[in-house]
Amino acid sequence: MLKEKTVLIMGIRNKWSIAYGAAQAAYENGAKLIFTFMGEENREKIEELISEFEGSKAYTCDASKDEELVELFTKIKAEYGKINGILHSIAHANTQDLRNDFINTSKEGFAHANDVSAYSLVATCRIAKELDVLSDNASIVAVTYYGSTKVLEGYNVMGVAKAALECSIRYLASNLGPEGIRVNAISAGPIKTLSAKGIKDFNSILDVVEEKAPLRRNVTTKEVGNAVTFMLSDMSRAITGQVVYADSGYSIMGI
Question: Residue 1 domain-assigned?
């Protein structure tokens, strides 16, 4: 589905991350991959991680800093020309703001979570557009979660940040649609990623999904990656501004 397409995957951390599952699916469907990661000290680890994706390359980039996004897309355009897709798999909140009741969220923590988890997508879209890095009919996909619409214990400020992300997707889709560029989100079911470790009693969430979801199981990073691949492909060219759930159906249940 992605043959002859170049896709940027932002936010890969390890083989358990959603970004890695998306990379596997995209690569198997013919995509040429580019990655971003945080921290130059992690380069050796990341380059070993992506070595299975022949021809791929990784750049360090803090997406919360506009100047680093400008540097990233300038390099990408010089080396690859225009790209066909972007996966935004970036989110962060301070541990204390996840562990404490939401009412106790610090002003700094609120701003940080929304800046990294939501505004970084806005900046990514704007700078990629300004530098003319996106091809005709490009597709941008972000990763979100059910905690944006329902109260989940331990998700707290990240739920607010994901709600901001989802609303931003609708406005970005409206802004970029006239140029043929699509913006969507995949709302993944709970997965044991590094980020999930910051959520209190995360394993109990997995248990509830297994019990209540129509498919009676949790999802894998590869399954979410397959959904991302579909959204990046021309098969989904009529879809934009949407949040598509890949969660074994859990989100449709009332109890």
Answer: no
